[in-house]
Structure formats: structure tokens, C-alpha cells
Amino acid sequence: MTLDVARQTALKHLERLVMLSDGVFAIAITLSAIEIHAEPRAGESLWQAWGPALLVYFLSFFLIGLVWLVHRRIVSFLRDIDGVGTVINMVLLSLVALVPVVVRFALTHPTQQGALLVYALAFAALYAMMAVLWGYAAFVARLTLDVSRPVAVGMLCKLCFAVAVFTGATMYQLGFLVAAVLCVLTALPLRWMAWRQRVPAS
What we know:
Elements: H1 3-34, H2 46-76, H3 83-97, H4 99-108, H5 113-140, H6 149-174, H7 177-196
Helix pairs in contact: 1-2, 1-3, 1-4, 2-4, 2-5, 3-5, 4-5, 5-6, 6-7
């Protein structure tokens, strides 16, 4: 197989991965909307019936949108993708597909502490997998285009910052206040490092 043919094949693999990823993100957002089943009870206003469900939906839409924007930024830096990178991305997509389940739980258990816990845990796992994907592509397999090391390090710090924030929220919901504070103390220097590297907005 010539070099040109190999590059074209790798590019096709990357294009298919991007199409699959966009499809999963779109389905996750759509299914989150389907989970809204607001049924007014006697004496409830329209806002009381629909407010919590719509709040959870728009929060989910916003958070999934942020994950998609970061994922789009990552794949825009890739020149191709290999088998390991594809597996990592598939694990990431499996977590994205679980978001509607998280939304359903939040809607059916709005007053329970577990609703926020599941939310924080889900997005901590999502950002952790994106950090793994970027770390592998940029530093292990060298699958990126002409990305300078400061930008690559800054992007990783930015992703790890999000992991630390959501992990801190998880620890707080579990009642581990010391662990939550440690996560926050870890997140702050990571964000500062990302800012120092002048990472472009996602």
C-alpha cells in the first residue's frame, strides 16, 4: 500500500468516526427531549409542571453541547485515527449515549441527592475519556496535525480541569468534603496552566 493510499484510507476512517460521533451526540440530545413527560397535577401551575423538566433538559442540552464542541475541537486536530483511538472514542460515545438515562433519572427523582450525583459522575467520566482520547492522540500515537506542544499540553490541562471540577462535585454530593476541596485545589492550577498555554476556545 502506497503512502498516499494509506493516508486516504486513514482519512476515510477519521471521516466515518466523525460522522458516527455527530450522530450519537444528536441522538443523545434528541432522546433527552423525549424523556420530558410533564403531567400537571391538581393545583399545580404550568410552570410548576413543566419548569423542572425543562430545566433538566436545557441543562443537558448545554452540557452535551459543550462536550460536542470540545470533541469537535479534538477531531479537528487529528490527521487520522488508528484502532486504539477508535476504541477510546467508542467508549466516549457509549458514555454520551447514557446521558438520556441520566436525564430520565433526574426527572423521576428530582428531589433526591442522587440526581445531582449521577449528573456530576456522568460528565466527569465524559471529560475523563476526552482527556484520554486527546492524550493518546497527541502524546502517544502522534495522530495530530501540526499542533505545538504548548497547545497540546494546554488542551490536556483544560480537559483535566473539567474532570477535576465534576469529580469535585461528585465528592461533594457523596459528602466527602475534603476530597471535594482537593479536587478544586487541583482544578485551579490546571485552568491556570491552560490559560498560560493560550489554548484557543473550543
